[in-house]
Specification:
This protein is mainly α and 251 residues long. The chain has one domain. 80% of the residues lie in helices and 0% in strands. The longest helix has 27 residues. The two termini are 29 Å apart. The relative contact order is 0.23.
């Protein structure tokens, strides 16, 4: 891969990392950026993304925990559900054709963008908590879907938690935390299959981390509604463009 392409990927990853740190949603853009934008094969792009989330996610969780935006009890339950879900999702990646994976990722981009553009439901009081069974189920669903398509997990978990009436910052904190077990399990499977590009993955991980460090303060300082609308519009447009590109290539 040419140096100019690697620099472009690094720049895009910084922007995506900023979105992850600021809104919890943004990691879903990484695989399309690698695959559609830089021509990385879809399964390799998924493996690179999950490897990078493993390291950048540690920084994101530490920064959110320091600001009191991580619910440790909820993280434990969601993580317990995410582990088997991520294992199944990572295994399923090798069984699903690349064009189907590309269509799923593009469709998720479009759906997530449209969903995030909808008016937010009123957040529940911080004292309200979800049942353990609900958290386990959310973790399993998030783990499977995120490992399958290479998303960090927040794009799935955060909207679900907000729809269930959880406070936005706590939902984002859980979204940051859930990517760690997902990325760890999926990366082990990808390592066994020999599809992890450590060189490019490490570049992406460092760039994501830089963006996250810049984005976390924004999450705690700027109106979340405005940030989410901006990112949602970008995701919807990116998803539509990716689906159009797939449709034209299949014609």
């Amino acid at each position: 891969m040419e140096s100019a392409t690697i620099l472009l990927i690094a720049a895009a990853s910084i922007v995506i990392g900023t979105a992850i740190g600021a809104t919890g949603i943004g990691g879903v853009l990484l695989v399309p950026a690698l695959s559609f934008g830089a021509g990385v094969p879809i399964r390799a792009a998924i493996a690179i993304a999950l490897w990078s989330y493993l390291w950048s996610g540690l920084v994101a969780v530490a920064l959110y925990a320091r600001r009191g935006s991580i619910d440790r009890a909820a993280v434990t339950r969601i993580g317990m559900g995410a582990l088997p879900g991520a294992l199944l999702g990572a295994k399923a990646t090798s069984l699903v054709p690349g064009n189907i994976l590309s269509a799923l990722i593009a469709g998720l981009l479009l759906a997530a963008g449209i969903n995030a553009l909808r008016p937010a439901l009123p957040a529940a009081p911080a004292s309200r908590s979800l049942s353990g069974i609900t958290l386990l189920a959310l973790g399993a669903l998030t783990g499977f879907a995120a490992a399958l398509i290479g998303a960090g997990g927040a794009v799935i978990l955060v909207p679900l938690l907000v729809m269930l009436g959880q406070p936005v910052l706590l939902a984002i904190g859980l979204g940051q935390a859930v990517q760690l077990p997902i990325a760890a399990i999926a990366t082990l499977v990808n390592l066994a299959d020999g599809v992890v590009d450590f060189r490019l993955g490490s570049v992406v991980a460092v760039a994501l981390t830089l963006g996250i460090v810049a984005g976390v303060p924004l999450a705690h300082a700027l109106p979340q509604a405005r940030l989410r609308r901006l990112l949602a519009a970008f995701m919807a447009l990116a998803g539509f463009a990716a689906l159009l590109r797939l449709a034209l290539s299949a014609a």
